[in-house]
Every structure is written in structure tokens, then in C-alpha cells.
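Reviewer 2 asked us to include a model.

Predict the structure of this chain.
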Amino acid sequence: HRAHKAYVLDVAEALASPLFHNKDISRKLSADSLKEILKYMSSRGQVAWTDKQQSRCYVYWRSPEEWGKLIHDWADATGHLNTVCTFYELVQGDDTADTEFAGLDVDLLRLSLQTLEKQGKAELICFDGSDGVKFF
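Predicted model (C-alpha cells):
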């Protein structure tokens, strides 16, 4: 998932993907096997389910805390402390196009910024219908 910058895994879609289904040799991973793998990854904090049915999950190739630190380091290095950035600017903006967090799932971005908020390094805000963050 890291190579493809994928942050969310849909179990049904994953089972049909080349990662788990090799059509050339007619072999695929069973749904039960994938669930066992994801259960193990969940126990290690590498995935977090987005729903009670466990049909979708975040794949943490970086934890929300690690993403938060990476984003805060960017804000510090680029002079964005004490300024407001929209979520859109952070994941789709020109200033962040070359960063590792460019294209980050917005819900995962929110989780990551909440870790900064708990540390007193950011404040999540909503203005004019847009979500944003002020970095400290």
C-alpha cells in the first residue's frame, strides 16, 4: 500500500486485487486468511478499522502520530507556524505536492492533526465550511 500511497483498504476490493489474487496461476487468498492477516496487523497497531463490520480499514504504514510529526516538521520548516492551512492545502496544495503526505486520506489527516492538537502543537478549526489547522 505504501508504494501506491494507499491509506484505506476495502476488504472486498483487496481480495480481487492483484496483491491477493494472481490470475496468471489461478490462486487467491481466502477472505478468512485476509481477515486473519488484518487481525494480526490490528493487534500490532498497523491497521485501524473504519467500521464495525470490519469491511474497511486504515493501513498505517505510518502511525497518525508519525504523520502528525511529519506534517508539523513541514509546517515549521516552511514558515507555516502560527498560520492557518486548510486540509485541502495540506493534501492537495502546490506547497505540499512533493511531501510524503501529499494525497493523504482526509480522515487520516484529521486523526494525525488531532495528535498534534493533544500535544499543543496545533488547533483544528472550521471556517466557511472548510476544515483547517493552525500550527504552533
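The helical segments are 11-16, 31-43, 64-77, 87-92, 106-118. The chain has two domains: 8-59, 64-135. We have added this to the supplementary material.
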